[in-house]
Amino acid sequence: MTMERNPLMRLVVIGNGMAAMRTVEELLQRDGGALYSITVFGAEPHPNYNRIMLSCVLAGDKSFDETVINTREWYAQNGITLFSGDPVAAVDREAKTVTSQSGRVVAYDKLLIATGSRPLAPSIPGLGLPGVCAFRDINDVETMLEAARTKSRAVVIGGGLLGLEAAWGLKQRGMSVALVHLMPTLMERQLDVPAAQMLQKALDRRGISFFTSGQTESITGDGHVEGVQLGDGRYIPADLVVLAIGIRPNIDLAKAAGLQIGRGITVFDDMRTSDPAIFAVGECVEHRGQVFGLVAPLWDQAKVCASHLAGEATAAFASKALATSLKITGIDVFSAGALTAADPDDDEITLRDDARGIYKKVVLREGKLVGAVLYGDVTDGQWYLQLMRDKQDVSVWRERLVFGRAIAETGKPVGPDFAAMPDDTQICGCNGVSKGTICKAVREKNLTTLADVRAHTKASASCGQCTGQVEALLAFVTGGVKTAKKTICACTDQSHDEVRAAIVGKRLKTMAAVRAALGWKTPEGCQKCRPALNYYLLCAWPGEYVDDLRSRFVNERVHANIQKDGTYSVIPRMWGGVTTAAELRAIADVADKYAVPTVKVTGGQRIDLLGIKKDDLPSVWRDLNRAGMVSGHAYAKGLRTVKTCVGSEWCRFGTQDSTGLGIKLEKLCWGSWTPHKVKLAVSGCPRNCAEATIKDVGIVCVEGGFDIMIGGNGGIEVRVTDKLARVATEGEVLEITAAFLQMYREEAHYLERTAPWVARIGLEAIRRRVIDDRTERQALFDRFLYSQKFAQTDPWAERVAGSEAHEFAPLEEV
Amino acid sequence: MSTANWNKVGRLESIPVRGARRLCSLYFGRPVAVFRTGDDQIFALVDECPHKKGPLSEGIIAGDTVACPLHGMVIGLQDGVAVAPDEGAVKTVPVSVIEGEVYLHLPEPGAPG
């Protein structure tokens, strides 16, 4: 008997997915490694990875390696035998063995089935055509990425979570994307109609075309997919079709083994199947009539299953209220429990603000929360979920519940006492609008949003300072309460947008004036708002506003980058990444003369001198200035570098003079202050050696023209640029780049890079003003040029000449 | 006051408003900085953030606090104590302004900086 030769029991795991391996991890934590020798069979040829993150891999936010949960070394270290790429073909319950596709026979004492789910495939013609795939595993993602590299048109069938994430990922990868959904609204199982409509509108603005109420009749093509034919006659051309209409439990193996099955493999509260030696977890199981598609209950199942495998016999699985969220940058969706009132005793409470893109609904039954749908602001999602799970009585909070935890729990009255306020009290100073006028308009014209009130009364339509009051008054009249908002910092109740609007609208030209006009709570602000206000004023009033160095971060005040040891790094500008022997000689001399410990080439094609003492900065700059070099602004929230490839002057593939264009762009844009740092690049052909498609503005030269790409980022969250336009001349490139930068300078929030800003306001909003409207483009361009007149002085030369001299010398002790 | 160990370090105007300057000399082997607030109060602290020894003299000064330039910890200039929820403190150095001259109480003769 094996027990004598090997004291360990044998656990065989069918499936190498998330549920299976979480169960194994839980088992190892319970010292299960001492009880079992474990063998794992996986159908896919990879180690275990986080399937949920596939959307991020597709969208380019993560690499596949970052999704790997357990490496092959982990299996080895824990004594687990892994057969990947070799699915189990049969289970013999009599002999207690499994047989794999390749013919391996392994005996078990305990068996764990975690075969997951399969994509649902409708029976429509053309499903087998090349270019049609599901969105289930890394293989599907690779198919989609390959299509994105070589093809342009994608159709996603299915408007649920998975379909939307697939569509967004493909859009991010540069494809034009259409989404077909059988139902009239998206994510109909998780979202009610208003939330779904707001979601569709937001994605529509980001360039995804929707075909709702669309029944796919066939997928057409000759040798490769060419299009999707809908039942109502609509036809959508396609080079790639992704099916994401749902999943069904993968029960084939369990069925063949004679286990009890329903929609999934039937399991009891201890995760055992109808055969006590066989457990099952994950998307393949059915528990008390329920099947599973989200990850949270899988983790609970893994815990329960592991504790029974480890001999702790008390744990029981019970499904809890679940929440859904959507992984699309800048789109916040949360949903849990009931979407709508199911019977006359249920109550729905909703809040909707189209102008701010916010929708909230809670569903109450007998004083308890049974559902929540949030769009645009999901901060309170987890709190609602906990209230639902705890079945807490929330009747005392009823009137405040929809405004979230902060307001519900404090119980303080929100906003001014409008009931006691006389009707002739002026609310909007710019346009002379009184409380009475606003109340009358709201009541008589049934206004429901801030945008409506602005349109009808002009209240808060100019400087925006009274926006909060108008919103609160609107809520007072319509019976709601004002919601919390994001402010610049704790010194103020104003948002970035409101402050920017007031600076321009009320012609505020000093920080003190801004703080006085907008009711700052601190006399001189804080380290958060001061740099923001300094930038906003500098941007609004170039040539008039005096830059406040004391409100700038040390790097921008000292014009060098502080390092961890308090020394500085110095980076001279190298226009377009081009240098000369004379410049290199001067840099080498500086390195010798000041004993510079490290000389480093940067990612932006510049040379960095690291470890310079603060006192030495002016003389280092003097030496560099003498060789004709100026500040590279490597420390600035401003234009950093324009990276280039060699282009048509030398490269056999180059289509345009990318180096020359890069230098022209840098000469145009250097010195400009922006909300956050800005990096440009110009590639001479689509091979893109300058990596232009992860820059704030990237120019990719093509035969006879230039693609202008915007909003890329190579940082923590990699974002590939969106294509703004293709133009024919260098002149257009320069004008459009400057106009885009000016729009970013005037409208983004301080410390917001172009990538999140573009994602927030949408490509179309930028295209309208920078491409389509020629007058607007010209105006932006002119304002940029005007601002540059005051920005383009070398700060190093000024300091070499004696400006801010106290900055670079310590106090003398007498 | 006794003039023993009170060292004149410079005139008030030599320190920028909402600014700071570091001393040439050390205090028990540590750098020292003198801070001037928006309302012309003068404070002196050991110029090392309790977090990672960042030079506080390079931080942004607002009210009577300074934010360390390395990782943003905010330190009270009055007592050298980090503003909650952060924890930690730096040593304060007694300072006095007489007729526009700034004096620091440095019991140990400073080593050259």
From TrEMBL, chain A:
Nitrite/Sulfite reductase ferredoxin-like domain boundaries: 563-626
Pathway assigned to this chain's UniProt record: Nitrogen metabolism; nitrate reduction (assimilation)
Domain of life, source organism: Bacteria
Domain FAD/NAD(P)-binding as annotated: residue spans: 10-289
Domain BFD-like [2Fe-2S]-binding, chain residue ranges per copy: 427-475, 488-537
Cofactor needs: [4Fe-4S] cluster; [2Fe-2S] cluster; FAD; siroheme
InterPro entries referenced in this protein's UniProt entry, alphabetically: BFD-like_2Fe2S-bd_dom, BFD-like_2Fe2S-bd_dom_sf, FAD/NAD-bd_sf, FAD/NAD-binding_dom, FAD/NAD-linked_Rdtase_dimer_sf, NasD-like, NiRdtase/SiRdtase_haem-b_fer, Nit/Sulf_reduc_fer-like_dom_sf
Residue intervals of the NADH-rubredoxin oxidoreductase C-terminal domain: 323-391
Keyword Heme: yes
The name this protein goes by in its record: Nitrite reductase large subunit NirB
Record carries keyword S-adenosyl-L-methionine: no
Pfam families on file: Fer2_BFD, NIR_SIR, NIR_SIR_ferr, Pyr_redox_2, Rubredoxin_C
Family label: Belongs to the nitrite and sulfite reductase 4Fe-4S domain family.
Nitrite/sulphite reductase 4Fe-4S domain mapped to chain residues: 636-775
Keyword vocabulary terms for this entry: 2Fe-2S, 4Fe-4S, FAD, Flavoprotein, Heme, Iron, Iron-sulfur, Metal-binding, Nitrate assimilation, Oxidoreductase
TrEMBL record, chain B:
Domain Rieske: 6-104
Entry keyword NADP: no
One of the Pfam families matching this protein, by short name: Rieske_2
Keywords: 2Fe-2S, Iron, Iron-sulfur, Metal-binding, Nitrate assimilation, Oxidoreductase
Protein's recorded name: Nitrite reductase small subunit NirD
Species annotation: Rhizomicrobium electricum
Gene: nirD
